[in-house]
UniProtKB/TrEMBL annotation:
Residues 41-108 form the Intradiol ring-cleavage dioxygenases domain. Keywords: Dioxygenase, Oxidoreductase. Belongs to the intradiol ring-cleavage dioxygenase family. One of its GO terms (molecular function) is protocatechuate 3,4-dioxygenase activity. It is an enzyme of class 1 (oxidoreductase). It comes from Nesterenkonia xinjiangensis. Signal peptide: none annotated. InterPro entries: Intradiol_dOase_C, Intradiol_dOase_core, Intradiol_RC_Dioxygenase, Protocat_dOase_a. It comes from the Bacteria. This is Protocatechuate 3,4-dioxygenase alpha subunit. Pfam families: Dioxygenase_C. Its EC number is 1.13.11.3.
Length: 198
């Protein structure tokens, strides 16, 4: 569409990407702790589109407390020193939409609270990132009392709860639409920037 000088007619915005695979991942991004850490656990899953097809160019970020429920305020996520737990990680999906983090299971941030990991999703076709969270599956009493889960229709709550692998890892698949669509969250006054600064 040709435009004349001074024409301020709005035009459609462009969709994002796909550029995540080479522009944003960095060495150590998915490794909040080393695999040799005594409490290391794998948090992983696959990102699916509305047709159930894996998305090959998504990017996942997580924020979480440590195993004791303390919320870290340490710098160093972009330049890991191998010792400091910052609670933040970034992982690109592979060619079949799979992502994986090495982290610790989050502790409850207050007595009786259900432990969870905050998850942010970037992908082609999204005008902005998506927010969700994944809860640990074993904390049944805390899950039943969780205010956010209580606000979600009962038949969709399972989309916010990770599944436990046979090896002890946590699987959390993310579905943009369709059957078992992940519950996504909105936060008022959320700035359009994510990730730590160091």
């Amino acid at each position: 569409m040709a435009r004349t000088p001074g024409d301020l007619t709005p035009i459609p915005a462009q969709t994002v990407g796909p550029f995540f695979g080479f522009a944003l991942p960095y060495e150590g991004g998915p490794d909040l702790v080393d695999r040799s850490h005594r409490q290391a656990v794998r948090l992983h899953g696959t990102v699916y589109d509305g047709d159930g097809i894996p998305v090959p160019d998504a990017l996942i970020e997580i924020w979480q407390p440590d195993g004791e429920g303390r919320i870290p305020a340490e710098p160093g996520s972009l330049h890991r020193d191998g010792h400091t737990f910052t609670g933040w990680g970034r992982a690109a999906v592979d060619a079949v939409g799979h992502y994986s983090f090495t982290t610790v299971e989050p502790g409850a941030t207050s007595a009786g609270a259900a432990p969870f990991v905050l998850v942010t999703v970037f992908a082609r076709g999204l005008m902005d990132r998506l927010f969700t969270r994944t809860y640990l599956p074993e904390h049944t009493d805390a899950l039943a009392a969780d205010p956010l889960l209580a606000s979600v229709p009962e038949n969709r709550r399972h989309t916010l709860i990770a599944a436990r692998d046979d090896d002890g890892g946590l699987r959390f698949d993310i579905r943009f639409q369709g059957q078992d669509e992940t519950v996504f969250l909105s936060y008022p006054n959320t700035p359009q920037v994510t990730g730590p600064v160091d």
